[in-house]
Amino acid sequence: MDPIIEIRNLSYSYPDGTPALVDINLQVMEGEKIALVGANGAGKSTLLLHLNGIFTGSGKISIAGLELEKKNLARIRALVGLIFQDPEDQLFSPTVFEDVAYGPIYQGFDAKEVSAKVQQALHAVELDSYAQRNSFHISGGEKKRVAIASVLSMMPRILAIDEPTSGLDPRSRRELLSLLQELPQTMVIATHDLALVNTLAPRTVLLDHGKIVADGSTADILGDEKLLMEHGLL
Known about the structure:
By secondary structure, the chain is an alpha/beta fold. The protein has helices spanning 44-50, 73-79, 96-106, 111-124, 140-152, 170-182, 194-200, 218-222, 225-230; strands at 5-13, 19-28, 33-37, 58-63, 66-67, 80-83, 158-162, 186-190, 203-208, 211-217. Helix 3 (96-106) packs parallel to helix 5 and helix 5 (140-152) packs parallel to helix 6 (170-182). It is globular, with a radius of gyration of 18 Å.
């Protein structure tokens, strides 16, 4: 079986010349849930932003067999749903319905299809009754779920999620974790939340200064205190 994500020799530097990713090689199979962990500045978010072409470095990336290049960009962005750390970076419409509908409208679906996709996405995140709510007058945990719904409405095969539990209270964190466990999509999750990693992601990739320094089972990596201390996670 071919990987749904394949990254080969990916390197990227910020405009000031600082290396952010160095010779990244990574394969992810369909249905896998993997965690990207590392200290601040390790390159986790930068790697996520390469999966749908927001950043473009040297090397090769393929998504579901499509090379990440200009002619395939629209198709790849439909396959990879990017969920930002701050949901307010994704929520900008007067109502939840309009936020979740934005993607399907952009994809060219008619009004009936858009409505069906919104209802399906809101049901998936257990916010069926929120369609006419104001996106900015709901809780932080609810905003996270609306942001996820806004991506699910485009029916992606991959979710690239940046710090999903950041800023959530314990109850909202538990609810979000339960939701992510139930979703069937392939997931690449950048996070500092090692408890989330232990619960949700059977595989962990450890980054440090833009390099992959470990890639293996979550139990092995999180159980290696020396490794975690060496790379700023303990």
